[in-house]
Amino acid sequence: MKICVLPGDGIGPEIMVQAVRVLDLLRGEGLAIEIEEALIGGAAVDATGGPLPQSTLALAKAADAVLLGAVGGPKWDVLARELRPERGLLGIRKELELFANLRPAILYPELANASSLKPEIVSGLDIMIVRELTGDIYFGQPRGIEERDGERVGFNTMLYSESEVRRIGHVAFQIARKRNHRLCSVDKMNVLETTQLWRDVMIEISAEYPDVELSHMLVDNAAMQLVRNPKQFDVMVTGNMFGDILSDEASMLTGSIGMLPSASLDCNNKGMYEPSHGSAPDIAGKGLANPLATILSVAMMLRYSFGLEEAAVRIERAVKGVLAAGMRTGDIYEPGTRKIGTAEMGDAVLAAM
Ligand code: NAD
After folding, report:
1. For position 278, what pLDDT does the model report?
2. How far, in Å, CA of 208 to CA of 195, rounded?
3. Which fold has domain 101-265?
4. Is the pLDDT of residue 255 over 80?
5. Fewest 10 Å CB contacts: which of 87, 208, 247, 311?
6. Ligand 1 pocket check: which of 279, 327, 345 to mutate, most ligand atoms within 8 Å of Cβ?
7. Known catalytic membership, residue 138
8. Do residues 271 and 265 make contact, with C-beta atoms less than 8 angstroms apart?
9. In what helix (H) or strand (E) does residue 12 lie, and over which residues does it extend?
10. Looking at domain 1-99+270-353, what is its CATH homologous superfamily?
11. Cα of 46 to ligand 1 centre, how many Å?
């Protein structure tokens, strides 16, 4: 199993150290894991002048899976848009054809108080958001800012082909099949033709999944329902932009973005795995970051790219055990628990494994 490790910027390198320790432990026990590290994001800009060097892309393409920390930071925000770290991320997703983004939002009972919602609304929450990742208004052409009639106008193009909708639809239906057989497709068909097509295609392919109950929701209502009664959802599927927003909203229901992994898959289950959070420049280099989202991303990698369900569950159990033992990084700390740093959290997970 060749794994390309991309620590990135900010807290990326710190949290990646802890995730690699988990991989090292599994390798020590006999799993055939090979790790190769490369530059992406701001670190790559500093070293090579661009956020996604060819050598990084080649390594990522040759690997069976990619594990990414986070990219970005204020230092690079002044650069031209195409040189910014985030472009490296968009670029690698596009180049590896990672069209399916899986973002679980799970509320661990020990962290029920960390949510800004009442415990009874969120306790036991377990949602999977499936977001299309390589199309929509984020990639549609034409786009730009130009002068028209004496003033500047900005424009982007929302675009989905039916084949793009179909392939993300199949991923979502198959995941729903492995869970509670309920899929909610989110669109804005009352205003946007692109999403009328989205809804039509979802209905068409639902015929192949008679055991999955398909429902539809407009995105504004979905945003509201996620905070009103989030437990009504099992699997949600939506486009790139709506998914970007709704998956961040869902992640905050759980209280800490530092806890949530994500997977982005191509059509062969090759994937890139990364925490849902960013590079947290405010705490970078201080040993305060929560490494659990990255460690849980390793679990997702073992499950989705390598089919190693047992190893994945072992990591997830270790994380639950550590939380049950009262260990917390600052982002999930509450009185009565023990506040620890990034490396100690890594130690605790390894010990629990
Ligand atoms: P962020 O997720 O980096 O941080 C938001 C808040 O959450 C901060 O207060 C931060 O300290 C905290 N936080 C995030 N992860 C944490 C962790 N593991 N442990 C403890 N606390 C954590 O989002 P932001 O501040 O909007 O963005 C910062 C930079 O990250 C920007 O340059 C942005 O472009 C980039 N970014 C990158 C990714 C990515 O690499 N996938 C995603 C989002 C944002």
Report:
1. 93
2. 21
3. Isopropylmalate Dehydrogenase (3.40.718)
4. no
5. 208
6. 279
7. yes
8. yes
9. helix 12-28
10. Isopropylmalate Dehydrogenase (3.40.718.10)
11. 20
